[in-house]
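Prompt: May I have another protein with tokenized structure?
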Amino acid sequence: MRILGISAHYHDSAAALLVDGAPICAVQEERLSRRKNDPAFPLCAIECCLEQARIEPEQLDAVVFYEKPMLKFDRILTMALRGFPRTWRSFPRAMQNSLGGKLWIKGIIASRLGVRAERILFCEHHQSHAAAAFLTAPVQRAAILTADGVGEWATLTLGQGEIDGRGQARLEIARELRFPHSLGMLYSTFTAYLGFPVNEGEYKMMGLAAYGRPAYEELLWRIVRRTADGGIALDLSYFDFHEGARQSWSRKLVAELGPPRHAWQGIDPSTAEGQRYADIAASVQRVLEEILVDLARRLQRETGLEDLCLGGGVALNGVANARILRESGFNNLYVPPAPGDAGCALGAALYADRIHFGRPHVTLPDHPYWGPVVDDGELARIAAEDGLEAQRLSEPQLLRRVAAELAQGRIVGWMQGACELGPRALGNRSILAAPHEPAMRERLNRSIKYREEFRPFAPAVPIDQADRYFEVPPGGLRLGRYMSGVFAVRPQWREKLAAITHVDGTARLQAVDRAMAPRFHALLEAYGERTGIPVLLNTSFNLSGEPIVNRAVEGYSTFRRSGIDLLVAGDALVSKRRAAEALPEVA
């Protein structure tokens, strides 16, 4: 059976194709269209999936959309009528967005792909999140928690999943929190208040929080209160996202906290104003963590299960994830590599295959690499046209050369195999550097990433050596596979891992499994043999405001437009003629 899953028309559009229950391809539209967070109908991603499987659209048994547009339209209309006349400015735009895209998605799919209407299915938004979290995890039974801004009506769900002895899957959503009360909207409102882009800048607020103290926590607990059943209720007088057209916060919030930051303003936590921003971020982060830990703890007591699967955009908060693992009572926490809306394309396809059609569960390969494969020959051709020579090296030669260059302080663009699904580069589309000197972090922010100085970088380490350098709680290595948890760097290593150690002594760890990423794992070992420390700084291969690179041509363009010293695509290596800015080699 061939099932295509689609997410589109909000942010992070994507497509995923299952054949006989297993993924063949899954890719975000932005990686192909080169538009950051591209929300458009993912025609490029769909074509990529079909080409990979070598099938035509008419051969698809089902096309599944990741939410139910009529239910979403019901929410938009209901909220508009409830808030009238205050909603008169936002209502026309909301209607235009609905009528212009999602509401007619069945017709759009049918016309764009030529698929018969009866083969087009719909999955509720949080069911897609739940399926992406549970049906990709290596467990037979688990509790499930999903949280994001909003789907149709639900903003947070609690439930559980089970795969019985016959391989039949069951997903049960027992309780849900409904819009406008939303942890995701709470966090994104303050993301916007601090001048960061929503659905992208939440990472920045999480990083900024480490520079602050929760000085506004008392106010936050007035803004969001806990309910008797363990849920939350927002004091909507502080918000305008449910009624307004221009911003998500109200004048009352500004009166309490002071003026919001404009996107063009810098942030220096050493100044009074910068400290205010950091304290606001720390307060929101603290409240989010407390609520999530409490919800997870209650869910564990109710279900008695050992494993928790976490989905939705809120699951990208690695600091909160680490606290859930430590404090909730669950032994294991599973977060997919794409817990947000992009992953819903895969989740919707899995839900249709396992639940709608009732097909037996197939254990999925445990990796995030479902996109297009890099062509090292393309890099060689492009470099030659530009007057640079691409060396073709055997794997041992390549690993020795790259490890030596990294040890000398050079920065490497690293492209291998298929690109990752999700927002994080996990060793196939990465920028790599030595993690030892604070100057490396500054250089990367200044001349490579072109981003704020307060943002941290992640370390990658072989999974069997992670505990030597990082304080990983039981079950934490699973989170580390997909950079889904933030853990403390052991104090004795912080000075030697200064470029990846955040101001609070933590790091968003990637624990690299040899079976998942053999060449990246081998590079870490080669670097460790040379320097004594098998840890590399790993950040996504893109410049600020651009999607992560996909093809060799995009990697080469980024290489030429930034301070990257070497570019590797498969077995091909290109270096710049000019002498690289280098740090002293690690002893």
